[in-house]
Amino acid sequence: MSIDGGSIGIWAARLWKREVACLILPPSWETPWDSTPVIGISQMLGYVFLRPVNSDDVTLGWVVYRPVLSTIKYYRDHKTMIVHVSLLSELRESFSVRS
Questions:
Q1: What ranges do the domains of the chain cover?
Q2: Which of 71, 68, 78 is nearest to 26 (CA)?
Q3: What is the largest CA-CA distance in the chain?
Q4: For every one of its 99 residues, what pLDDT tens digit does the chain have, with 9 covering 90 and above?
């Protein structure tokens, strides 16, 4: 496990080079100049985005979703996991992951 600071671009580059298996991003502000390139490149490379399914602040599982490619700054109020599609079957065995 690795917990790093820095930009989402640096985190994503480590993911794309397979230095890490996934990214889990905390809720935060999304900006077009940071998020849009990371989302687009990740999707083109076969990565999927998951968000938690919560009940009373307890994570019950994860569900695949399509992140917003926004032209304005907005607040994403949930964690986001980014993982390569080839690892989804392993995640389904370990976590409750739904498509």
A1: 1-65
A2: 78
A3: 37
A4: 555 667 888 989 999 999 999 999 999 999 999 999 999 999 999 999 999 988 777 777 889 999 988 899 999 999 999 999 999 888 777 666 665
The helix/strand/coil state of 13 is helix
Contact 34, 47 (CB under 8 A): no
β-bridge pairing 58-65 and 97-98: parallel
| pTM as predicted | 0.85
Measured CA to CA, the distance from residue 87 to residue 69 in angstroms comes to: 24
Query: What Cα–Cα distance (Å) separates residue 79 from each residue in 17, 41?
Result: 22, 19
Residue 29 · residue 68 · CB < 8 Å: no
Radius of gyration of the chain (CA): 13
